Amino acid sequence: MVLILLGSVVRNISEIPSSNCGRDGLSHITIAGAVADRLKEVEVWLQTFAPGTRTPIHRHSCEEVFVVLKGAGTLLLGSSSSKYPGQPQEFKIHANSTFTVPINDPHQVWNTGELEDLQMLVIISRPPVKIFIYEDWSMPHVAAKLKYPYYWDQECLNSPKDEL
Amino acid sequence: MVLILLGSVVRNISEIPSSNCGRDGLSHITIAGAVADRLKEVEVWLQTFAPGTRTPIHRHSCEEVFVVLKGAGTLLLGSSSSKYPGQPQEFKIHANSTFTVPINDPHQVWNTGELEDLQMLVIISRPPVKIFIYEDWSMPHVAAKLKYPYYWDQECLNSPKDEL
């Protein structure tokens, strides 16, 4: 089944396998990217967060654009210019909104709703993504831990480039 | 109004100005990209084609991913390995489908429906896009005409890089 999907020029998104990456309430689908399409410059994800769930606090040196398809939530955005992220700015996000995350800025996206899923298309550059994870907003940038390859990129064997 | 939008971290997509780029039946919105966000690695468009309308036959050296949100149509895909595109392959596209266009392959997307708009999110790498346009499928690649900056990138003053 997967082999058929990989060989198709046009794919039905609902037939692309999803994963929760070991996190309750998450559904991740790579719509197009490094593993299935051997793309080197862009990757597109469809991510769905159940009410109350969120991404880790993390940063990456690639560009990132979000398009919110359903639901609502909060973007938390820390600083990359201090030694640690610090108290994050908070921005409300909602269906039919878009936002970009500046390169290397630590950030986190929450589904702060109580009933509705938060569903977003996420676009990153230079896949596969190299994600540095923070335990909290006061952790120094240099202590953030690289998770590579990330859960959905286990089949990628490229070495990570140097990062911040 | 535009200045307010440019300064916002989170934007309402329905408030981003659209353009028809001089083509009846087209609505183009740059959701995030080189002009408004100074992105260098990815750009995201929301494009809507009225029934019977289509893109030009064209190629570009960036990666491109389509996510079809509404409607149906046809992807025509020519070859970059011969001297001219040749008879294109045809692929049906539909809501909730996705496809990527190989770098430098001449292609065209049609709304072949009679009633419904074809709406797609389009992701490209390395904006602003450098588009080479063909008059027909038998035009040699070297005769395709560069249109740069493209309609929605008039404010970009970067020089195009060398292309195929």
From TrEMBL, chains A, B:
Glycosylation sites: N96
Keywords: Auxin signaling pathway, Disulfide bond, Endoplasmic reticulum, Glycoprotein, Metal-binding, Receptor, Signal, Zinc
Gene3D superfamilies from the UniProt entry: Jelly Rolls (2.60.120.10)
Gene Ontology BP terms: auxin-activated signaling pathway; cytokinesis by cell plate formation; positive regulation of cell division; positive regulation of cell size; positive regulation of DNA endoreduplication; unidimensional cell growth
Annotated GO MF terms: auxin binding; metal ion binding
Binding sites annotated in the UniProt record for Zn(2+): H58, H60, E64, H107
Compartments where found: Endoplasmic reticulum lumen
Domain of life according to the entry: Eukaryota
Record-level GO cellular component terms: endoplasmic reticulum lumen
SUPFAM superfamilies registered for this protein in UniProt: RmlC-like cupins
Pfam families (UniProt xref): Auxin_BP
Alphabetized PANTHER family for the sequence: AUXIN-BINDING PROTEIN 1
Protein name in the entry: Auxin-binding protein
Organism: Rhynchospora pubera
Higher taxonomy: Eukaryota, Viridiplantae, Streptophyta, Embryophyta, Tracheophyta
